[in-house]
Structures are given as C-alpha cells and as structure tokens.
Amino acid sequence: MKILTIIGSPRKKGNSYQAAKKLEEEMKKKGDYQFEYVFLKDAHLETCRGCFNCVPRGIEFCPLKDDRQMIQDKMEEADGLIMVSPVYVMMVSTLLKNFIDRVAYLCHRPAYHGKKALVLCTTAGVGSKETRKYMETVTKSWGYRVTGKCGLVTAPWPATDGLKRKNQRNLEKSVENFDKSLKSVEKEKLNGVKVGFMDYMSFRIFQTVSLNVREYMPADYQFYQGKEYYQPARIGLITRALSGVMLKVIFFMMRDMGPGDGEK
Questions:
Q1: For the chain, is the Cβ count within 10 Å smaller at the N or the C terminus?
Q2: Cα separation of 122 and 127, whole Å?
Q3: Can you give the pTM of this predicted structure?
Q4: How many CA atoms lie within 13 A of 33 on its CB side?
C-alpha cells in the first residue's frame, strides 16, 4: 500500500521529519508499505487570498495556480495519509495551516472517504493535545477516517530514558491502529462501510443545507444531490428513521440561519 506523508515543518530534516521516518520504520515492520513524502517547505503554494471561490463555486475557480492540485492528486493516489506538523504556539505550522486553508472546500465536499489517516505532531513541551485534535478534526472533515493520533515530545535537550520509552509506546500504538485500518480497506470495499448515526446525520445536514442554499452554493448542491452517502455504505433502518426526525428538530432550531428575503 502507498502512504503519502505531508510534512508541515519549515525545517526539512527537523524533529517532525525524524519522527515521520521512525513511524515509517515501524509501519514497514507491519507490511509492504511504500512511502512518499511531500515537504510543504519545498512546494509552491501561494498564500490563500480568502476569496471564498472554492467553497460556493468550486475549486476550479481558485485564482491561484500552483502545486495545490499536484498534492491533492498524490492524496487521491495514496491508500493512506500521514499529516505531520511541529507544534507552534499551540497550533500547526504556518505551512500546514496555509495548505488547509487552500483546500477549505473539502470541509464542504469531502473527497477522501474510504481512505485512512494518521496525524503526527512533535512538541518541545505543551500543545500536543490541542494540535492533534485540530489536525484530526480537519482531516476527518476531508473524508479520511483518522485511525492513528501520535504526539511526540522532542525537547531541545537529550531525552531521558523514560521519555524515550513513552514516545516509543505512543508511536507503536498509533502504528498498530493505522496498520489495522489500512488492512481492513478491502473488506470494507466488499461489504460496504457501516455508517454511524452521527456521521450519517452530518451528511444529511450538509445535503439538506445544500438544497436550501443551492442558489448561493451551487457546487455543494451539485455534489450532494442524488447521493445516499459519501461512499457505498450500510445505513441501518433505525439510523435512517431517527435522522429524519432529528433533521426536522435541527432545522427548526436553525431556521434563522438560512437565506432571508434580502433588503426591502
């Protein structure tokens, strides 16, 4: 299987890269994995202008023509994604945040359902939990199932034996979960993915909103109409029935969030 590793550090051979290489070593003990690295430091990615074209109209209307599509092509080709960042002031690096902003439309129209992901961050001390949570939330919104979450402490002084053991345990646990999920892909393709209630509710909310705002968000409308779910899936009868009831409640509570009559 092919794994794409996106490195968000501005230091090409820094702690984040070293951590990713250790993860690669552990993964290759588990199976025949091929790794490819994308260093955002070396990629030609212009800064997001905040024009918002990609969300309502489509990514083809983004005015910036650079390596964004090349990176997404690699994401599409790979079976799994490893997203890596150092912790900078309780957050991901600027390089990774800009890439996330450049593909903002994926939060509306996820393209990577059926694929697995692992998020990895390195920190000199604090901020690992917050950074991993953010990376997980973003990656899930793109469609990935995040099955590995790893934070390693890489202080600017020699690590104690205790810290080395703790980092190794965290690494091995994340690798084990990621490896198992990757090996389950073929079975999921054969039998279909069983969709949980919250995931199905999220889909139905986006689908319903896209219908109600189709004049303002035509790309969302085109994406969601006619879909049963994001990918072939098993959706239980109770999940279907309960979601219908909950949708009515949710949209009653959100009744002031939709388009108004405009200025009079």
A1: C
A2: 9
A3: 0.92
A4: 26
